[in-house]
Amino acid sequence: MKDLESWLKERRITEVECLVSDITGIARGKITPVSKFMAEKGMRLPESVLLQTVTGDYVEDELYYSLLDPADIDMLCRPDSSAVYPVPWALEPTAQVIHDCYDKMGNPIELSCRNQLKKVLALYAEQGWKPVVAPEMEFYLTKRCEDPDLPLLPPIGRSGRQETGRQSFSIDAANEFDPLFEDMYDWCEVQGLDIDTLIHEEGTAQMEINFRHGDPLMLADQVFVFKRTLREAALKHDVVATFMAKPITNEPGSAMHIHQSVLDAATGKSVFANEDGSMSQLFLHHIGGMQRFIPEALPLMAPNVNSFRRFLPDTSAPVNVEWGVENRTCGLRVPDSSPQNRRIENRLPGADANAYLAIAASLLCGYLGMVQQLNPSAPVQGRAFERRNLRLPFTLEQALERMENCSELEQYMGHRFVTGYVAVKRVENENFKKVISSWEREFLLLSV
């Protein structure tokens, strides 16, 4: 807390946003004067916020009280001094501090997404391995729209016109939103976020930001903060930024591609490469684990009903866990690189996924392959869409059923977490099924 206190004083911070991530990735917490924050050295929150759905509902009472203390007690949230960021869009000097969640005995709470990622990183550390990741975040810019029944439209750029058609990698199309992106880059620099390249993606007003590779926990924190930052920059310019997996009909979905590699913690050398530079057995086992377990862990990478709208053949999103070198039709792409930089790009997670859980799940699947020595299938040459032996669950319901029946996920992530996560997502799915879509009204109303 001494370092944290010095940091706050140097920047004359007057308010602190004390944050934890819930299962969806929503920032929950309290806003407090800096004096109270320093006096209390953290905050208390009901543990139930970790079982809250995206609609604000909770799981059924019987399950709720079996996963939580029947008295609905508070958890203790302690600030992480390595996860402190200014809030550059705030009117008063404000900091946001990410907290870890503990019970009254000081044990990490299993339902916490950040704790789940820390648990996976500890598994790697026990083996003398150090994972490295680099997320890529896709998102859409749209006009502001108050009516959720109306389709989203592209925003007006500097030229005074809406973007039309596909503008993949267009510099001029990205420059249409220069004022917004200048604020985004300035605010990210103030916060120390390691963002790198800005790309115009395939969809209309769809963009991608790449993060530099680094420590998985640090980068999960940064993705969590970046989503808040981009949304605020967009609102400042009267635009909406959305990380929905599939926000617009007939447009590509938005992904959170995760590049991941593993180093020897003692030497810093990649364990994915042999001395002669060839692919190591650990590398192949890592792929084998991802192929085996990603279909079981898919709800952690595709957490919403809307997430599964991305997975369509012959689109930019994969529909399998095949692997191949420089092959974007595979769920697991191996980019061409030097042996030391050899990595796997997991192309399955959606931009709507909770970064803590998507990274934790992706790394856990690879870890299980390494310790269980699982061999991958043969790499794909050509279009992976034509291969059907390694397909994914088609719906969220199917995916949740596979997740809750996976003994390895329960062993490593814990019964409370797996049960609670599946329950939250089932409540959200039931809420979705109560809503009648415009397609049903358009095609069924007078026809059936």
From TrEMBL:
Concerning Pfam families, the annotation shows: Gln-synt_C
The superkingdom of the source organism is Bacteria
* Residue intervals of the GS catalytic domain: 113-448
What are the protein's UniProt keywords? Ligase, Magnesium
| Cofactor(s) required, per the database record | Mg(2+)
Q: Which organism is it from?
A: Billgrantia aerodenitrificans
| Signal sequence bounds | none
Q: Does the keyword Ligase apply?
A: yes
Q: Which residues form a coiled coil?
A: none
Which SUPFAM superfamilies does the annotation name?
Glutamine synthetase, N-terminal domain, Glutamine synthetase/guanido kinase
Write down the PROSITE patterns for this protein, in alphabetical order: GLNA_ATP, GS_CATALYTIC
The protein here is known as Glutamine synthetase
Lipid biosynthesis as UniProt keyword: no
Similarity remark = Belongs to the glutamine synthetase family.
Q: InterPro entries annotated for this entry?
A: Gln_synt_N_sf, Gln_synth/guanido_kin_cat_dom, Gln_synth_cat_dom, Gln_synth_gly_rich_site
